[in-house]
Amino acid sequence: MPKTKEKLNIARVIYNAYPHSDLLPIEPDKDCCNLQVLLAKVTNENFGDGLFKFIVTEIVEGGDGKITGAILVMEQARKDIESVLLALEGSINQKSYEVITSKS
Length: 104
Prior knowledge:
globular
């Protein structure tokens, strides 16, 4: 009998790869059965982890539910975050940042 290829569960890959995913309010066997279930979990509840929610939402909306799409979306997110990080670091190096203080 030929082996049937099991479909990759992108939701579970995301959960397993995310640092400290065990602290997320997720039951992996229930909430990570597929991307749509995971998206519902992170968007319909007070989730508390914006980065994880962002990752799941971007992969679902921009990745077309495919691993290749998910990779492209995450590569773009990495470039976007790196641009912001470089700008922040550059502002410190140029001493052109604004110090905000609050008076109590």
